[in-house]
Structure formats: structure tokens, C-alpha cells
Amino acid sequence: MTTEDERLRAHIAQELRVAMKARNASRVAALRSLAAALDNATAVPMPPRVLPNEKSEVPRKTLSLQDVRTVLTREIAERRHAASTLTAHARLEEAAAVEAEIAILEQYIDWS
Questions:
Q1: What backbone phi and psi angles, to 5 degrees, belong to 101?
Q2: Contacts of 26 (CB under 8 A, 6+ apart)
Q3: Using one digit for the tens of pLDDT, what is the confidence trace for 22-78?
Q4: Where are the domains of the chain?
Q5: Residue 12 to residues 69, 95, 107: CA-CA distances in angstroms?
Q6: Is domain 4-42+63-106 classified as CATH 1.10.1510.10?
Q7: Distance of CA 109 to the CA centre of its chain
Q8: Which residues have a Cβ under 8 Å from the Cβ of 19 and sit 6 or more positions away?
Q9: Residues near 55 by Cβ (< 8 Å), separated by ≥ 6?
Q10: Does residue 5 contact residue 62 with C-beta atoms inside 8 Å?
């Protein structure tokens, strides 16, 4: 059975391939960072008693739809802050690129 998290990851991977083929740099950057943020959100702490040469497989967390929305909201908030900072320093081209990434990420907020 596929979870919402897995379906979204598969969709992002497919969209990333399409964006790479189309050479859409802002879409590729936004989707790569979203995939990395979702991967980071599923990380769990290592058990405390792991020896240096000992292999330890720890299952990753499964994200709920609310967890995914939280990650997306955080990513969008970080980009909004970056865009306002860039605008304040008169770096309008970079700010526009960040705004384009925000628009791409906002498409996934209500994804289901």
C-alpha cells in the first residue's frame, strides 16, 4: 500500500525529470530542495549504542500529509524571507528567481 508521502515523492521525482529535460532551472532547484527537505524530515536519530564499525539500519519515519504541509510551509517561509532580504539589498534578479521557486512550491501545498 502506498502512502501519501510516497505518492508525493514519486510525483516530485517525475516532475523533476520533466523539468530537467526542459532545462527549467528554477523548477529543478525548487523540486530538488523540496525532495531534500522531505528526506531530512524523515530522518530519525541513530540509536545511542552504535559502535564505529557496526552496521545499524534504522527505518525512516513516514510523513503524514500534515507533516508534508509543515515542511512545505517552512520551505516557502524561508524563501519568502530570502526574497525580501534580496529585494532590500536591490538584488532584484535573484529575488525574482526565489519568487519563482515559491510559486512552484505553493503548487504542492494542497496536493493530495
A1: -65, -40
A2: 97, 100, 101, 104
A3: 999 999 999 999 999 999 999 887 767 766 776 667 788 888 889 989 999 999 999
A4: 4-42+63-106
A5: 14, 24, 11
A6: yes
A7: 11
A8: 27, 28, 31
A9: none
A10: yes
